[in-house]
Amino acid sequence: MRTLDRKLFRDLWRMRINAIAIAMVLGCGLSIFVMAVGMRESLEHTRHEYYANQQMADLAVSLVRAPERVEFDLAAAPGVAVVEARVAGLALLDLPGVVEPASARLVSLPSNGKPLVNNLVLARGRWPDPTVAEEVLVNEAFAKALDLETGATLEATLRGRRQTLRIVGIANSPEFVFVSAPGELFPQPDRFAVIWMGHEALARAYDFEGAFNEVVFRLAPDADQKLAKRSIDAIVERYGSTGVYGRDRMPSDRFLTEELRQLATMATFLPAIFLVIAAFLVNVSLARIVATERSNIGLLKAFGYSDAAVGWHYAKSALMLGAVGALIGSGAGVWLGRLIAAVYRDYYHFPRLDFAAPLWIFVAAFAAALASASAGALFAVMNAARIAPAAALAPPRPVAFSQSNGLTGALSRHLDAKSRVIVRRIVRFPRRSATTVIGIALAIGLLVVARTFPAVMDRLLDVHFSQANRQDVTLSFIDAREEGVLHAVGQLPGVIYAEPTRVDSVILHNGVRSVEEVLIGSKPDTRLGRLIGAGGKLLPPPAAGVALARALAAKLGVKTGDWIDVEQTRGARVRVSVRVAAIVDPMVGSSAYMDLDAQARLMREPRQITGANVRLDPASYDAFNSALKRTPTLAGASFLTLAEQSMRRSFQEGVGYMNLIYLSFAAVMAGGVAFSAARVTLAEQERDLATLRVLGFTRFEVSYVLIGELAALALLAIPAGCVAGTLMANWLMQLFQTDMYSFPYVFNPEGYGLAISFTLACVAVAAFVVRGGIDRLDMVAVLKGRD
Amino acid sequence: MTGIKDRKDCACDRWIAQRRKLSENMAPTFSLRKVGKRYGDGLAAIHALRDVDLDVAEGEMLVLLGPSGSGKSTLLNILGGLDRATSGDVKFRETSLTAMADEELTRYRRQHVGFIFQFYNLIPSLTARENVELVNEITENPMPAAEALYLVGLGDRLDHFPAQLSGGEQQRVAVARAIAKRPAVLLCDEPTGALDVRTGIRVLEALMEVSARFRSTTLLVTHNADVARLGDRVVRFLDGGIRKIETNSGRAAPADLVW
Q1: C-alpha A684, offset from chain centre
Q2: CATH classification of the domain holding B182
Q3: Which of A243, A297, A598, B44 has the highest Cβ tally under 10 A?
C-alpha cells in the first residue's frame, strides 16, 4: 500500500464517527432503494412467472348466458390461443361458529382436467372429483383466515338452494392474487371466499346446463389485442356481454400494478432525500479535514506531489465513504427486502416469491452513493488541489468575520459574548448551517409524513364509515327486485330502518375516454348511504344528472356541467347522455351516483332496486343473521363494522411497519446530521473552547457555546421541518392516490409534536455525546499548538 | 504606549494604590515546595519537573528562562491551574492549588489569573472589544473593555475582528483581555514568540506597563536570554529543575532589548 493511502485510512479512522454518520445516512437511503426496486423487480418477475406458468387470462368477458357451442366460435376468433368457458356466480356461506353470513365467488372447473386458462396452484389436498358434486377447492387466504383444512365442510346457499360443500383442496390462482367481494374495496379474507367446483355441479346449481356465463382467453404471443377484443365482442354481444376486457380491468392485476407503482414511488422519494443530505455531510466533513490538513497539503506539494494527486487523495476518502455507504445500503436493502418479501408472500399467496435484486440495482446503488459523495467532496477537493504550497505552509489567518448589519447584527448587540459567537458562526458558515438545518428539518419532515398517514386513515375511515355510510349492513340481491321487497327486508328481525339502493355496473364515456364503474342510486332523502361533497359537506344524490367521484371525473376529464354517456353493461346495453351535476369526495371508491328512481328509469327497470342499506338493533344481531342465512335471494351481505375493523387492522399493520422504518431513518438522519455538525464545530472550535476554559469559563458555560449553535440550528429547523413535512405529506398523499382511495392531507398536531420532540431528542443525544469532548479538552496541548 | 499617557487620571489608580498598601507584609503570591510533575509510570515515566522550590512575591516580575523541554511551561501551567503537580505543594497565597478540585481550579483561574499565550488565542468571531468583554462577563468588578484596550494602545481598533488585526495587535488584545479582570497573577507563555522584534517590543511594553500599574505578580516564560533582563529575578531551568535564580540589579526597558 502506498504511504499516502495509509495516511488516507488513518485520516478516515480519525474522523470515524463522522464517517460512520455519513455512511449510515447513505446506507439508509440506499437500503430503501435496493429494497423497493428489488422488491418491485422480484414482484414483477414473480407475477410474470406466475401468469406464464398458470396461463393467466389476457382477456375476459361476463355474459348473461351463452350456449356451449359459442365456445367454438370464440376459439376461432383472430389472435385467440386458448378459450375457457365457465360458469361463475355468487353464494352465501354459513360458516360454523360465525354469526354473519360470508359470501363466495364460485367458479367452475372444466370437467376434463385442469383449467387451460387461469390454472390453479394446489397448495394442499387434491383436485375435486368431477363426478362428486360436493367436492370443492377454496382459496388459501380464506382457508388460512378461518383455519380451514381439507375435509372441512361449508354450508352454501347457491341461487336459493342450500348445499353442503366439502373442501378437498386449497388452491391459489393468478386471477385471485388480490381477492375482494364485489362492491367491497378492501380484502376481507375471512368474509369472502373463492370456491372452485366441478363444471357440471355448478352449472346444475345455477341452472346453466349446456351454457356458460364467463369466458377467459389466452391470446397468441403475436396477437393484435384490439382486433381480438373486437372480434370477441361481436360474437358475445347477443349473449348479454358486459364487454370484453383486458388485464387492466381485472381487479387483482390492477391492484398488483398499483402496488408496483407505489414501490417505484418509494424507491425514488426517500433515497433522494438521504443522498442529498449525505452529500452535504461529506461537504462539511471533508472541508474540515482539508482545513486541518492545510500544512500537510503544502508539504506534499512542496515535495513534488501534483495538484491533481493531492486532490485525488482527498477525493478518494469521499469515494470510500460512498462505497461503505453503498455496501451498508445493499446489505440492509437485501435484508429488508427479504423481510418484506415474506410479508408479500404471506399476503398474496404467491406460490413462490423470493427477494432477488438483479445486479444492476447494486451497481445503481454504488453509482448513486459515489455520485452523492463526489458531489459533496467537490468544493473541498478543489480547495486542496488549488491552494499554492507557500500559502498552505504559512500559518492560517484567523477566520475572517465581519460586523453584520440587519437582523443578526441587531440581534448580536443584545446578546452576551458567548451567544454572539454562536450567531456569528451560524452566519459565517451558511452552507454548513444550512446543511444542519435542512438535515434536521428533513428528519422532522419524514416523521410528519409518517404520522400523517394514520391521521389520514382515521379520516378516511371516519368519512366512509361514520359520515357517508351509516348503515350496519348492506344487502345485495341476486337480481334487481321490485321496490316492494324493501318491506320484506323491514320484516327481518332487528331491522330498525331500511333504505333501497341500486348498484349497476356501467361504462361511462366522454369522447374517447371510457371507464367501467359502478353507478350507485339512492333516495334523495337518504339517511344511510350519503354523499360527501367538497369540504366534507353532505349532498343529496342529484335530482337530475349524475354525481361523479373526483378521481372518476378526472379520469373522464369532465367537470360539473359537462355531459357524459352512461352505457348499460347488460341487457339492452342502452347508452344515454347524462349531465354531470356534481363532483363528490367519497374517499373510498370512485363511483358515480344518481337519484335511485332516475337510475332505475335509465336502466329501463323502473322501480327496481338491487339491494338495501339496513340499520339494526344490536340486540337482534344474531336473529337477523340467522334469518339472512335462510334468505335465498341474497347475493351478499356486507357488515360495515367488520369491514371497518378489517381495514383498520390492515392499515395499522402497514402503518406500524412504516412507522418503525421512518422512525429509525429519521433518527439516523437527525442524529447523523447533528452529530456531524457538533463534531465539526467541536473540532473547529477546540482551540476557542479551550481558551474559554483557560480564561475561567466552567464546562457548563463552554458547553453552551458548542451546544448553543446546534440548538439554535435545531430551533430554526422546526418550522422548516413542519413546512417540509406538510409539503412532502401532501405530495405523497397524491402519489399514493389510487382508484380505490383518495388520501387528503390531514393536519395532525399530535404527529407534528411527536416529529419535533423525537427529532430534537435525537439531536440532544448527539449533542450530549459530542459535548463529552469538552471534558476531554487538553487545555495545555491545544493552546501550545499553532492551530 | 499612548494609552497609558492618555489616561493619567485613570480611575484604577486609586485601586492600584490600595493594592500596593495591602500587599505589604503579605505572604508570597506563590510558594512552591518540592514540586514535581511526572507523565507516565515506571520505565516510561518522564519527569517534567523535579523538586522545585520557589517563592514568588506579590507584584514581582519573574522571568522563567530555559531551553525547550526544561520544565518552565509546565511550571507555568501548574501555577495557572491548567495542570496539577504530581508531588509537592503549590500554594497561591494561603491556599494550596494541589488539593483543588477541577471546579475550584476553574474558579481560581476566573478570579485571579490572566493568561497571555504565544499564539494569542482570540475568539475569531468576536471583535477586540468583545474578546475582552467575554472575560468581563464572568468577572466581578472588571475594567471596562474599552479602557483595557486603551491601556494597550488599541483605542482605535475596538470593533475590529482578529482577522483584521496584525499579529502584534492581536497579542495586545490578548494582553488587554488578561488585565481587564485586574488579575493578581499574569502568566505569559512566550508572548513574543510569534512576533517580529518591533512588534514584540511593543507588546512587551504594554505588558510591562500594565503589570507595573496593577502590581500583578507576573511570570514570563521565554527561551530568549535577552528578555530575561526585564525581570526582577530570573529563574533558569534545565532538565525539569531550577538550575539558578538570579536577581537583576535593575530592570531593563523593552526598547533596550535585542533578539
Answers
A1: 44
A2: 3.40.50.300
A3: A297
